[in-house]
Amino acid sequence: MKTLLIIEMGVPPLSVHQKCGSHADWFTSALQPLAGKMSTPVCRPYLGETLQEPASLGGAIITGSWSMVTDQEGWSEYTAQWFRTAMQAQLPVFGVCYGHQLMAHALGGTIGDNPKGLEIGTRTITLDTTAQTDPLLSQHAQTFDAYLLHQQSVLEPPAGAVSLATSDLDRHQILRYAPNTYSVQFHPEFSEAVMRASIEDLARAPGHGAEHTPIAAQTPFSRQILLNFCDIVLTAHQN
Questions:
Q1: Which residues are catalytic?
Q2: Is 160 helix (H, G, I), strand (E, B) or coil?
Q3: How far is residue 65 from each of residues 35, 99, 136, measured CA to CA in Å?
Q4: What letter does residue 167 receive in the DSSP assignment?
């Protein structure tokens, strides 16, 4: 059985955690269709846990976070270094939101506050023409809805990365770094409940109105991209 490591990059705010659980819980739930096909252990670098050697894994997911990549916290930079090693080992890796930004940062990309503003709620993602021949996306809808919740973005991808999708506020919604390594700015693991709980928590922050687009009941095409990555893990000749 392949091992897909979930690298959890922090804990959500208390109100979100009490209602919906942790980042790792959301991914475990999203991956239920693959139950029995792969194991999904969790590593928490923010608690000082040591990441497994890439050669011992079938793949990895780097989750979102309420932290900021630009703070360059020790545990985050440790994970960035691990990712560079994983790239050299050709390990399939999938990053989400914070994970998306961290992977780009680890390879020399530029991360910062999105100059076009926050993306909060359900927004439309549009695939670029380059996605038509990509193994992760070639059978996918050209446009689809996704849950978003982020302040920072990948402002400039690292050299060699290919941008595969955009939104009206972010040019780099999906990046490909290698044939089996991708990251997305949106949240394929979110449920409607997680999205709503996150917005409710944000609305309590001083000076923040938590303006957002309407919340869809579900975002199945977004979720399918995560499952497509897992198919890559299951078919990769890794271990």
A1: 97, 187, 189
A2: coil
A3: 25, 8, 24
A4: -
- Burial class from Cβ neighbours inside 10 Å (0-12, 13-18, 19+) for residue 143 reads exposed
Q: Is the pLDDT of residue 97 over 50?
A: yes
Element (H, E) at 235: helix 220-235
- β-pairing, 2-7 with 42-43? parallel
Q: Do 113 and 203 form a contact (C-beta atoms < 8 A)?
A: no
* C-alpha span between 64 and 69 (Å, rounded): 10
Sequential DSSP letters for 26-66: HHHHHTGGGTTTEE--EE-GGGTPPPPPGGG-SEEEE---S
**What is the phi/psi pair of residue 216, to 5°?**
-70, 155
Closest CA relative to residue 197, chosen from 64, 34, 15: 15
Cα–Cα distance between 226 and 94 in angstroms, integer? Answer: 8
Length of the chain, please? 239
Helices 74-88, 98-106: axis angle to 10 degrees equals: 70
Question: Which residues, 6 or more positions from 205, have their beta carbon under 8 angstroms from its beta carbon?
Answer: none
* 163-200 pLDDT tens trace: 999 999 999 999 999 999 999 999 999 999 999 999 99
Domain ranges of the chain: 2-235
173 neighbors 125 (Cβ within 8 angstroms): yes
Topology (CATH) of 2-235? Rossmann fold (3.40.50)
Q: pLDDT tens, 193-213?
A: 999 999 999 888 766 555 687
